[in-house]
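A protein record in our archive is deliberately plain, so that people and models can read it alike. The tokens are whole numbers drawn from a learned vocabulary of local backbone shapes. For reference, a complete record is included directly beneath this paragraph.
>
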Amino acid sequence: MAAILSSLRNTVIAGFVLAAVMFVIYYQSQGYSSSDFGVYFFRWLHVISGVMWIGLLWYFNFVQIPNMPNIPDDQKPAIGKVIAPAALWWFRWGAMSTIVTGLIVAYMSDYLMSAITLGGGGAVPKDMFIGLGMWMGAIMWFNVWFVIWPNQKKALGMVEVEADAKAAAARTAMLFSRTNTLLSFPMLFSMVAAQNLF
């Protein structure tokens, strides 16, 4: 067991193996419908991706940013040079994977256009709620890729800029990260409501 848990790679592989075992149990007890399982599989990937993305968003906003002033100056480079770049890599690709798998689920479930148009002319409440969640998620994804990440590269020194520009980039990244934190609560409400209240 220590060989599995001592390595993140082995831990993740073991987690996916256990998920495959769960699939076999499901298959033996319920049978298999490829269309139903396909939607479920992409929804599962969507949730995994979303947990990675929003979990890191909340880590940045609830843990890293508030505690940076408490870290001695000589230790801050470890955050900026090692931890933050790694976390931002998973953060960006978690966002990308979340939006791609979400769009696949919406397409496979035949509500993509109705959700994008917030229920269309019929104002279907379920589609309106999932659509609101999708739009908020799209705004958050845009913020990650086109505002937060470019500004974080400057703030972390991955892109050379003047000290004033570096400070401004850090502030911009923080404000858009806070915007995403704000949007994460109604976005998750909309997504969960669409799946459970209608």
Q: What stands out?
A: DSSP finds seven helices and no strands in the chain. The two ends are 43 Å apart (CA to CA). Residues 1-32 form one domain. The longest helix spans residues 34-67.
